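Provenance

Sequences were taken from public entries as deposited. Structures were produced by running a predictor on each sequence independently, with no templates supplied. The record for NAD(P)-binding protein from Desulfobotulus mexicanus is shown for reference.
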Amino acid sequence: MTTQIRGIDPLFQPIQIGSMTVKNRIYMPAMHLGMCENYEVSDQVTAFYEERARGGAGAICVGYASVNELSANVTHIGAHEDAHIPGLKKMADAIKQHDCRALVQLNHAGRYNHSMLLNGKQPVAPSAIASNLTREVPREMTKEDIDQTVADFAAAAGRVKAAGFDGVEILSGTGYLISEFLSPLTNKREDEYGGPFENRCRFAMEIFSAIRKTVGSDYPVVVRMNGNDLMPEGMGRVELREYARKLSDSGLVDAVCINVGWHEARIPQIVTSVPRGVYAYLARGIKEVVSIPVIASHRINDPKDARRLIADDMCDMVAMGRSLIADAFLPKKAEEGRENEVIHCIACAQGCFDNLFKFKHVECLCNPRAGYEFKMAAVQTDKAKKVFVIGGGAAGMSAALSAREKGHDVTLFEASSRLGGQLYLAAAPPGREEFAELAKDLATQVQVNNIRVMLKTTVDKALLEKEKPDAVILATGAEPISPPIPGADLPHVAQAWDVLEDRAHTGKNVVVIGGGAVGVETSIFLGEKGTLSGEELKFLFVNRADDVDKLYELATKGTKNVTLIEMTQSVGKDIGKSTRWTMMQEMKRIGIRTDVTTKALEITKDGVKVEGSEGIELIPADSVVLAAGSKPVSALKETVEGLGISCQVIGDAAKIGLAFDAVHQGYAAGRAV
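Predicted structure for NAD(P)-binding protein:
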């Protein structure tokens, strides 16, 4: 199946950024990948970016890169010394050989840097105000510090040009040093760099002016800036629009790439609950007041959305970052009419942002090759084997695809009527629908790779004896645990999985037992029942059917009273750091009661008897939902091995884990056959 675009496709028209012509409108923005050591460009990071260039991106911005020793840490790309130029040149050459424009983003972390990452040195900032991320108080920069930092940015830009990159981007947002000078929240200076808007812009404008003097008038300079800081008492949409106008009018900048939010902002920016392309309105507002190209960012993960934003004049170009981590060949697939084959980023953050918090390099749930391109080239088998993959969830489909890629004869068995498994459970709560997209994407890959699929088929000893496969990959998943609580078998008690799949009715007062990921997701799923949908809310709002406060209440307060109980001291411990805070915030907003250090003693017809910090009490409930975890289903392993067939057990069938674990284990298992 192909997608044909009638007439001129706006996504694949060239665009001019200063003196640089870019072949299409897809821009891969800079993202910290954690793939460098001691600032040196590694084979790993070079191969990562080369794959995205080969995949058809119009321009790739790498980084961010350092401007001095206080600006970054050793896992960043280095640009603060001449010794870094050879490594930068290697990366530029790798990208440019695929007709892709290459840029480097320069940045200074300011108060977001941590003394632990600076060999004990104190971070610097416009004012001595602690960061909510590091809790450290930075040193206020002197005029000499400011002058030196301006010079450092210019020198680093000169190195970028000397290394052969097509352009340079300066990060002027996200809560880093330049935006700390811009914002009255973090800039309390009383000299020429503080106070009024013009003064707060001075540091940025001095940097851009110094860079322009160093690189010349015809070298492309892009600024990555916020459209809204999303910070109380910070820079909002209106003032940042004026900043963009100032950049455009100065003649120092050739394009702006519009970011949103600081890292410490409490409004979600990158997680799966953020609607696709929702922040493009900020790019639109800036495009209305500037005369240079505007690049829109955030949650643009589908060619259709990217094309629509450009065609609707919301922006001139789209930044697709994690989208190209998930599928390096998204641009080529879109240009060739194969958009149905795109593997979409689902904004889970399990392999990208969560990895960085663990001081690991970036990986991807959707793309197990991401970060391993330098050592995971496709390998063909010398002898094709007959491979049975049993279980059509994330692990099973991933295993089938990698075994097929290796050249094996693969059959994928699934007991239910569709592929996808627990990905559809993960997709059930509001704002988590993207997990179903991954299920569909993997199923499409299974189809286009001509893998034989047997739905509604249970594999047993008789089938194995008849077909005699050479190898079996067991991906039979898990099943929910029924905890030994008296009353768990009463008719008003249901498993969370049944609730999420709408196979169980729940009453007005619901108690959810178990505060892990499934319990949290189920609580939100139930708490949202009866709230206004986005479509309903827009209709009522544009027709002024009710006041804004009432509409907000109807959009956030459902019709059920939900209580979540958890034996330990916290809920959602198995949810990634990037996502957990947003889900906790959502639970609070929709009014879910959370009782921690609370043990369920008995389920009665009237509710749940619990023991908590206040002693024993009965929580009234019309319905009780069990979310006590799951256990592996792998009984077939003994049968397979008893027949002398090679067997690998993966995913939840081996050990309960995340979807990330399932996809990566499946990929490795297929390659191992």
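The domain at 482-628 is CATH 3.50.50.60 (FAD/NAD(P)-binding domain).
The CA atoms of residues 50 and 443 lie 27 Å apart.
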